[in-house]
Design brief:
Elements: H1 9-18, H2 29-32, H3 43-53, E1 63-67, H4 73-82, E2 85-90, H5 93-105, E3 112-116, H6 119-122, E4 136-142, H7 147-157, E5 158-171, H8 174-180, H9 185-194, E6 198-204, H10 207-231, H11 236-254, E7 257-265
Parallel strand pairs: 1-2, 1-4, 2-3, 4-5
Antiparallel strand pairs: 5-7, 6-7
The structure holds S-adenosylmethionine (SAM).
The site of S-adenosylmethionine has 21 residues, from helix 1.
Length: 267
């Protein structure tokens, strides 16, 4: 049976917008993304980047924050691969329940602390989930806020010389930047450097990898949508709209926009 949770209206809109889902499908989100651990990011690419750039702490495991962790794949991967301690937050309770169960199955629940929380509330001084945890050695935001919003927050949440990593989509040239009101990668990096932080790595994902990943994800989502539509025919129009949005987003990432990983070090 599909999971049916109630979310406050604005939170439902936030969750829906972040995964291009019509809000009416949020109660069925677990089914829509069934059997997909990662919602677009590539934990393998991130692990190899962090392996090169994140120095181990001499006395303790690194303390990591993953904001908008989705189903927790990256947090679990970092715990399994490096034995880092990860606090991972997402607004979608269904995703967090899934992540907690998977971490327990894989024997890393002692390293992963998954919390269902909205980012702004988690930051609330005193009572928010993050109030007693900062600063972190490494903070991640993979596929939620644009870099100009994510970078100042992540930089504030890590210790001096701590690292932060953002996965975002950038305009591939200035014409596209103007038309889509989205910065180029160069412009986003200039803003990070203007804060005094160092950029350790920044690179667009190569187009063939973007195409392959889009095709894989679209095929998977289409299978899930067909299965859900068979069980719940009234959801058909919303599922069709969802798949249209996904195709549109994929086309944009293959034309005028390109994903990139940006790794920076706080001053
Ligand atoms: C595109 S997904 C990325 C998930 C994950 N980082 C990954 O790469 O698999 C965006 C995530 O942001 C979460 N989200 C959206 N708005 C949020 C908010 N205000 N606070 C916390 N999480 C939020 C959604 O629930 C969703 O899991």
């Amino acid at each position: 049976m599909p999971t049916r949770r109630r979310h406050p209206r604005s939170l439902r809109q936030d969750i829906a917008a972040s995964v291009d889902l019509p809000p009416s499908l949020v109660p069925s989100i677990a089914r829509v993304f069934d059997a997909m651990e990662s919602l677009g990011s590539s934990p393998r690419a991130i692990v190899s980047l962090l392996q090169r750039h994140a120095p181990p702490h001499p006395r303790r495991p690194l303390r990591v924050l993953d904001l908008a962790c989705g189903k927790g794949d990256l947090a679990i991967t970092l715990a399994r691969r490096f034995a880092w301690r990860v606090l991972a937050i997402d607004a979608c309770p269904d995703f967090i329940t899934h992540a907690q169960a998977r971490a327990a199955r894989l024997g890393v629940d002692h390293l992963c602390d998954f919390r269902a929380a909205e980012i702004t509330s988690a930051l609330r001084p005193g009572r928010g989930t993050l109030a007693h945890h900062t600063p972190f050695d490494l903070a991640l935001m993979i596929g939620l806020w644009p870099t100009d919003r994510a970078a100042p927050l992540l930089s504030r949440l890590v210790r001096p010389r701590g690292l932060y990593l953002i996965d975002d989509a950038f305009a591939i040239h200035e014409n596209a930047a103007e038309r889509l009101n989205t910065p180029t990668l160069d412009l986003a990096l200039a803003a990070i450097r203007a804060r005094g932080d160092d950029v350790l790595h920044a690179a667009h994902t190569p187009l063939p990898s973007v195409r392959a990943s889009n095709a894989r994800i679209l095929a998977h989502l289409a299978r899930n949508a067909r299965a859900l539509a068979r069980q719940r025919p009234p959801l058909r129009p919303a599922l069709a709209e969802f798949l249209d949005r996904q195709r549109h987003a994929s086309r944009a990432l293959e034309r005028d926009l390109r994903p990139a990983l940006v790794l920076a070090r706080r001053a």
